[in-house]
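If it is no trouble, might I ask you for a protein's amino acid sequence along with its backbone structure tokens?
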Amino acid sequence: MREVVITLLGIALSYALSGCLQRLYSIYCVAIPSKVPPQHRVRVALIGAAKIASQGLLYPAQRVETVEVVAVAAREPERARKLAERWNIVKYGSYEAILADPEVDAVYIALINGVHYRWASAALKAGKHVLCEKPLTSNAAEARELARLANEHSLVLMEGYHNLHHPIARRMRQLVTNGELGKLTHLEVTSGLPSAGAVLAALGLQRPAGAPPPDKMNPALGGGRFLSQGCYAVSMVRYLLGEPDAPPAAAVRSAVMVEDAPGSRADISTEVHLSWRGGEAGDISHVRDSFSSSASSSHIRDNYSSPSAVSVTLRHTSVTPMGFNVHARFDNGSFYAFNFLFPFVYHYLRVCPNGAPSRIEKHYLEKHDAATGAPSAAMGAVPGAMEPPASAAAESSFALQLRAFASAVVIQRRRNLANGSPNTVQEADGALAAFMPESAVRNMELIDAIYDAAKLGRRG
């Protein structure tokens, strides 16, 4: 009997792995030859040679027919040259040189948080559309200025929350808003990848007071774990639940942040409580972000309480691999989504209606209408977006994001040629508004309010 159980477990594991490996092979090893004439492609330049560049642009561009990567810019010329050679990209050079190139239509910015504003601003002033890694900027003031520039020049400016472009995100939002499970009563979002600094802090081996933080933790450079990874939870909460009635500062009930060293302002752990009135699902009350279990922490304030408020928990740990998951409870059921950040690798959605059997859903491909082959509006598909080919087994959320960005650029181009007004992308395609600068501004306003409440100060 034992041997039978082991054999069955082995078969199940092999089956699960084969599906995952097949998806990854398709995503990373199978390029889709473009049939789009060169003059109709969006010519994109990479700004920055960070590790995210291959995930966010270089691999996805091989599977998005309307995108052509034409240039690479890096702070170190040799690094730019090597990356261009590795990916068969003809042009490489400095940031300034690439932005001045008239044969570049758009840029993908993969730089440290603290310089997003500088180079996104320069790109917009140079007439380039911008896809920028999250967070768009270090604070809301910078985000508002970028939004102004994008509108003034009628350019696309998109913040890179790739995970929100995946079908699993739209399915979660559908469950929150369609009433299938009743009224939302609790939302919990966990996010976390281990980091050496947080582990050391958890062990009591904090960075000495006065010692300079690394760049990724330096508040002046947009550093801090909440801005770097907690922002995924902020964007997910807003995506699922809509906008609150109150301004962000009024929504913050309490904030607890843990510094990696006394007085450093470099946060490694955060717990936030919000009171969120309005939106898609009613009252949102509580966001929690916990990176590590130890630390010198400070409970800031608790100025609002409502027994009817829906609790939203964001829990982030950098000590153990907690993962990126969403758990929602309703008055008539619940759902649990595993791995919302990299759903193209593997994910599942467990839906549990009260009084009915639970079910497991997986959403690797956009659902299409059986008669027309078009993306299903019920799934919240982006109208007019360029869809993956019918033969595709799956797409990465990065490829879906790049396809949506290219679609937005094409829409904006057409409107610009027709003397369209600013904000024409949102007017033409309301579904894209969730990824446009006004939404990024609201993300940053809430993040600013959280840092203010925690007395660690805004970033930048």
About this structure: The longest helix spans residues 2-29. The longest strand covers residues 184-191. The chain has two domains: 29-161+399-438, 165-371+442-453. Residues 282-307, 368-392 have pLDDT under 50 and may be disordered.
